[in-house]
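From the pipeline queue, job 12 of 40. The input is one protein chain; the requested action is below.

Action: predict structure.
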Amino acid sequence: MRTILVRHCKTLFNVSGLIMGWVDSPRVENWLEDILYIEAVLQQRGAHPDQVYSSALGRARDTADYMSGKLGQGSARHTQQLNEINYGSLSNKSKKWVAAHYPRHKKDPDFVYPGGESFSQMQSRSVAFLQDMALRHESETILCVAHAGVIRGLLSHFLHLDFALQLKRRISHRYIGVLDFSGTTCSAYDEWGEPSGFVTDGIVTLPEHSD
């Protein structure tokens, strides 16, 4: 299976420094520009996803539904397994305030946010989803619309990286990650869009092949 992994459209919270998690935010005025960029790259690469999946959160659903329609795939499928981390009672708060009051924030993947979950718990559910998809869509290509935290968790797992060190890697809204699977194991990784922090920081050299 090939998974094309992209991030949801840009929202007002993304540019205002507020934590979202499982809450949603209105899209920025020029939200479609990033999506059109991704669409153009997929066309240039000759990518034809057989199915579109996304998280169940509004910003990802909107992106997936738009892209699914443009790709002629009908309705996208939505799952909570691809949801961003649940920050619980810290949602809607300033990222700077959370960092000042919770020193384990984005440093310890096992820290459980009040009323929410940990990055490790989020990683486990999203990894389980992709592994299940790899078995169900063995010879197909799927497009997954997810979130920055989910993308960091997936790459850390499948590329065998220390998750704690990756919690702040930059993931652009023009990111396009490509994971090829052999069974439930990622055999190769590449990026077609704007390079992620994994590439610009020298953590991953592309294309990346599994041992």
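Job complete. Residues 40 and 148 are 21 Å apart (CA to CA).
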